[in-house]
Amino acid sequence: MYNILICDDDKDIVSALDIYLRAEGYNTFPAYDGTQALKAVQEHDIHLILMDVMMPNLDGIRATAKLRESCNVPIILLTAKSEDSDKVLGLNIGADDYVTKPFNPMEVMARVKSQLRRYTTLGGRDTGAPEPEDGLLRIGGIVLDDAAKTVSVDGEPIRLTPIEFDILRLFMRCPNQVFSTSEIYEKVWGDQAYGAENTVAVHIRHIREKLEIDPANPRYIKVVWGLGYKFEKV
Amino acid sequence: MKQDIRSYALVKALALLLAVGCAIGASFSWIYCAYHWDSLFDRDTVTSSSMWNQGMNERYSHLIETLDIYDQIRRGEKLGYLQEKNYNSYLSVLSPEQTNFRYIVRDNESGEILLSSSGEDSLKNVEDVWQSLRTISPSYLEYSYREYYGPEDTGGEDYTIFYDDDGNAILQVPGNMSRPRKEGETYRYAVEYGVDARLPLNDEFRAAHNSYTRGDIRILYLAGGLSLVCLVLTVFLMCCAGRRRGAETFTLNWSDKIPYDLYLFCVGFVGLSALGVGVEWAARAYWYLSDAGDCFLFNAMSALCFTTAFGLIEAALMSTATRVKTHTLLHNTITWRLCVWCWHLCGRLWQSCKDFACSLGELVGALPLTGRVIGFSLGYLFINFILAYGLFESYSSGVFLIFLCLFNGFVLYSICRWTVQWYNLRQGAQAIVKGNPEERIDTLGMKLFPDLRAHAEALNDLGSAINTAVDERLRSERMKAELITNVSHDLKTPLTSIINYVDLLKKEDIQGEKAQEYIEVLDRKSQRLKKLTEDLVEASKASTGTLTVNAERLGMGQLVDQALGEYNAKFEAANLTLLSSLPPQELYVKADGRHVWRILDNLLGNCVKYAMPGTRVYLELLKWDGNVIFSLKNVSASQLNVPPEELMERFVRGDESRTTEGSGLGLSIARSLTEVQGGSFRLSIDGDLFKASVSFPEVE
User: Fewer C-beta neighbours within 10 Å, C or N terminus of chain A?
Assistant: First the structure.
């Protein structure tokens, strides 16, 4: 039973999220501005915070900064501001995720689950570097077992086709490196790419759909438009 | 101004008196030092002083001349009247009553005294004896030796004995004297001379002695000290200058109001003259006069001169200081006033010249344009004719040739100037046409050509008007974009609730088909509203250019591949066949990958939404004329009765009924994004065939 704090100045949004989260079996606490949120965190054992940015008294960004001084509870920002600069500011100040309004409730639930898994079961462990010793590649919440040919995201196993698995392995071995489609084709299929790049893009889309909560805004496999794809080390 | 010691008249007067006094004292001291300069530093003996030596030489030359005449007498020659007179006067000048000079002339062979100041005792008391051996003729050889008469502690006298060529002693003279002698020479006279050490008479030797005894280095110190005090007082007085008790600022007195150059000239003339006369008289008192009364008189006179001179000099310095302090030094001069007057005169002349030129120009400007051109041409021809006539018919053809060249050169220069200015005008007009209305034409060089100038000013006004209009429009666009962004933010919050509660409703177990249908409609419309708000913000940002563009080198082939990868499933779902033709080699452009993706996203999305199901979509990427062109062709499902230009406007869609999904902003966004990144976006409609093409300049 996890305790989730919902903080938004719009009471209807708070109650809607409350309904969804309770349906998933979480315990929720409402707050309607930043100061209430801070108070609630002190009073209760909160495992995750959903925080609006634009709020009276104390806005979400400042509240996040204040919270980060004392605890590392996951914070997901919910906001109507969709500019890139706003997202960067929110993530830099210490938020773990960023969802723009109007949001899809299912997506928020998925993100909540993912953050909770990482916070509770996977802990604060730094799983950045690949560890060839045990044959496991770990980046962010993704664990790839080359021997068993299995992949799990935030602890949940997912099914990948052999080609998809090879592509993911290629990415995870060289995180942050940009691969063009023809490079990927040559490395995975072991053949010269003649107009087959389209296939690679399709495969990558499939991987993304399996790996990501919101495939349109991927967290791991990012599209570098006009250059290729890369696996971003979080 | 602070009431300090510098403003008291009494203090100033005292300081002035003291300064003048010190200056006079210093002057006398300096003159004294100058006249006793040798004895100030060289204090060996009195006989080494130049004054003494000069006297000695003078008396000796008298003695030699006397001796010459004496020799004539001795040889029995007859003396002339003048010679006799001279002889007597020399003897009297050399007598002990007239001078302290003493001498004895002996015969070189017998030692007999021939001439002397006072017989045998002549050299008594003479401390410094000079000896001279003389032969009168034929050869004028003379030798002088200086020896001391004899040390007193020995009690006796030393003698020098002279020998002749045969070794016989011929003369014994007092003193320790060696005998220089040349082969075949004979001396006839031995001369001994010197100065009576007691100095009984007041002559030049006594003067030299006095000077020697008086010469004291302390006088020099006194002179220096007094000069220093005078300098310090002068500086003080210059500080005081212009200050008055109770006056806030510096005050000019009557003498400060005299023009400075005149003042300086008068004061300099009088002061320096007085100084010169004073020095002269003071020098006389020291040098030429021995009488005490006269000496006093001259000293008094020179003191008077010094007082005048130094008084004037101090006054001039103070006046200069006052003028400097009140900044009137330069302005209160006759020279300055003359210069200013000349300057004004020149200015007035220049102004009247300009007025004349202006009125002439107005007169010319009032003529019609054709008249002016004809007038100028005729004038040009006439002047040329006159000059050419002068060149061929006049005697001074050189002058006419020079004038002809100058005139034609001037005309050519004016035409060139006109051409350059006209070119500037054309450049300015072109700048406005090209869309730089803020560029201004420089009208400074067009003074000579009022027509061109008026035209340039009109163009400048036009440019600034356009500029203002463009600025105004940009500002309103930006405000609109801001408004749209703010409004969409405000829309998003209630929209969130709507979407969430519709979703919740869907999960509720509501009975009735109608209810399910209504909820479905609500869901669809709320999703569309969401898309609309997002697109709205993007469209306004793209069209006002507030978007940031991180342009980098992109592979267009790669990007199209990636886009197709995203859309592959959607095409299949829409029952469309995609036929793509990509070049074998990669084509590169300089653009922001995310924005280019957004353009392709919108175009491909449009295909999926509006293309007739079951048809083929043609995608092509090619290189054409230095551009990379991406084109997409599809057959529209509904009739396209809108011109392509209108399709790119916001909120315009192919289907007028607007029942399908989509915001109507897609093409508008795509066009704006393309243009922001320096590309061009084209749409064409041929019946139901819809073709979109995006082109960017190719980079290596």
Answer: N
Angle at A162 between CA A157 and CA A167, to 5 degrees: 90
pTM: 0.49
Over B503-558, what HEC string results?
HHHHHCCCCCHHHHHHHHHHHHHHHHHHHHHHHHHHHHHHHHCCCCCCCEEEEHHH
Identify the residue whose tokens are 């030094």: B329
Report angle CA B477, B480, B481 to the nearest 5 degrees. 90
How far apart are the C-alpha atoms of B276 and B302, rounded to whole Å?
9
B628 pLDDT band, cuts 50/70/90, is very high
Alpha carbon distance B167, B158 (integer Å): 20
Picking from B566, B580, B597, the nearest residue to A205 by CB comes out as: B566
Q: Report the half-sphere exposure of B20 (CA within 13 A, side-chain side).
A: 21
How many other CB atoms are there within 10 angstroms of residue B546's CB atom? 14
The dihedral through the CA atoms of B116, B117, B123, B124 has a sign that is positive
Amino acid letter at B551? A
pLDDT per residue as tens digits for the range B372-404: 889 889 999 999 998 888 888 877 778 888 888
Does A46 contact B at CB distance below 8 Å?
Answer: no
CA dist., res. A93 & res. A63, Å (int):
10
* Residues of chain A found within 8 Å of residue B537, distances taken between Cβ atoms: 82
What is the spatial distance between Cα B528 and Cα B512, in angstroms, rounded to a whole number? Answer: 25
Give the span between the Cα atoms of B383 and B389, in whole angstroms: 10
* Rounded-to-integer distance, Cα A14 and Cα B633, Å: 47
E-assigned strands of B281-397? Answer: none
**Are B589 and B628 in contact, with CB atoms under 8 Å apart?**
yes
Q: What would the pLDDT profile of A8-21 be if each residue is shown by its tens digit? A: 988 888 999 999 99
Q: Which of B559, B565, B593 sits opposite A198 (nearest CB)?
A: B565
Residue-by-residue DSSP string for B264-306: HHHHHHHHHHHHHHHHHHHHHHHHT---HHHHHHHHHHHHHHH
Amino acid, single-letter form, for residue B165: D
- Please report, for residues A29, A31, A60, A89, A222, the alpha-carbon distance to residue A95 in angstroms, rounded to integers and kept in the order given: 19, 18, 10, 9, 20
CA neighbor of B493 nearest in space, from A73, A46, A70, A80? A80
Query: Which of B501, B503, B558, B572 should be substituted to probe chain A, the one whose Cβ sees the most A Cβ atoms within 10 Å?
Result: B558
Contact A10, B493 (CB under 8 A): yes
Task: Name the residue in chain B with its Cα closest to that of A19.
Answer: B504
Q: Round to whole Å and give the CA distance between B225 and B289.
A: 28
- What are B134's two structure tokens? 């003389």
Contact B371, B365 (CB under 8 A): no
* pLDDT computed for residue A143 by the predictor: 85
Interchain contact A192–B (C-beta under 8 A): no
Please, are residues B486 and B514 in contact by the beta-carbon 8 Å criterion?
no
Closest CA to B406 of B419, B422, B391, B420: B391
pLDDT tens-digit profile of B40-67? 766 666 666 777 778 888 888 888 888 8
- How many contacts (CB atoms, under 8 Å) link A and B? 108
